[in-house]
Design brief:
It is built from 9 helices and no strands. The protein is mainly α and 195 residues long. The protein folds into 2 domains: 96 residues, Rna Polymerase Sigma Factor, Chain: A, CATH 1.10.1740.10; 93 residues, Arc Repressor Mutant, subunit A.
Length: 195
């Protein structure tokens, strides 16, 4: 067991005994990751904040059922992803799109035309990601952004590996069709073959 895992296990054991500062340290370590998972699924900063807070609250309340020595990150990310998916599915859900320009990276030496095309392509990708069903979006985010393995995603979302692969395949196909016009003729042919 690495020293980092031992340290985390020690903090979680202390948190189980009611040591709030120990749990606050765990929250600090995973806060950005959990918020990022939530944001990429719900697509709203305010809702992602709420989802992340709820995920940590549920983790705190369920700490006695968490198996010490196992990685805490995938467990709390699963809670956040499930909360986020439930929010998106909810009929009272009001997903506010992210502001224009969110997440854009500007090329330093890009021509004005390249900058416009990059911005437009980023917006198309954001719109395509937002249009995915919540279940596909969650799997895509955990694989492409969080770089989790299929097994980790399956465990995190409590799905079979086959379901993970199927949802990821469908998500990638939809995203590829959406961004194909920005990727050149070869990408357009491949996207056309998938239709």
């Amino acid at each position: 067991m690495s020293s980092e895992v031992r340290d985390e296990t020690f903090l979680l054991a202390r948190a189980r005994e009611g040591d709030l500062p120990a749990f606050e340290e765990i929250v600090r370590r995973y806060q950005r990751r959990v918020y990022g998972v939530a944001l990429r699924i719900v697509r709203s900063h305010a809702v992602a904040d709420d989802v992340a807070q709820e995920a940590f609250l549920r983790a705190w309340q369920s700490l006695d059922r968490f198996e010490l020595g196992r990685p805490f990150g995938p467990w709390v990310c699963r809670i956040a992803a499930n909360q986020a998916v439930n929010h998106v599915r909810s009929p009272r859900s009001r997903e506010d799109p992210l502001p224009d320009g969110h997440g854009e990276t500007r090329a330093t030496d890009a021509s004005p035309l390249d900058a416009v095309l990059d911005t437009e392509a980023q917006q198309v990708l954001n719109d395509a990601l937002e249009s995915l069903p919540a279940e596909q979006r969650a799997v895509f985010v955990l694989r492409a952004v969080e770089e989790m393995s299929y097994a980790e995603i399956a465990e995190t979302l409590e799905l079979s590996p086959g379901t993970v692969m199927s949802r990821l395949f469908r998500a990638r196909e939809k995203l590829a069709r959406a961004v194909a016009p920005y990727l050149g003729p070869a990408a357009n042919r491949r996207a056309g073959e998938r239709r």
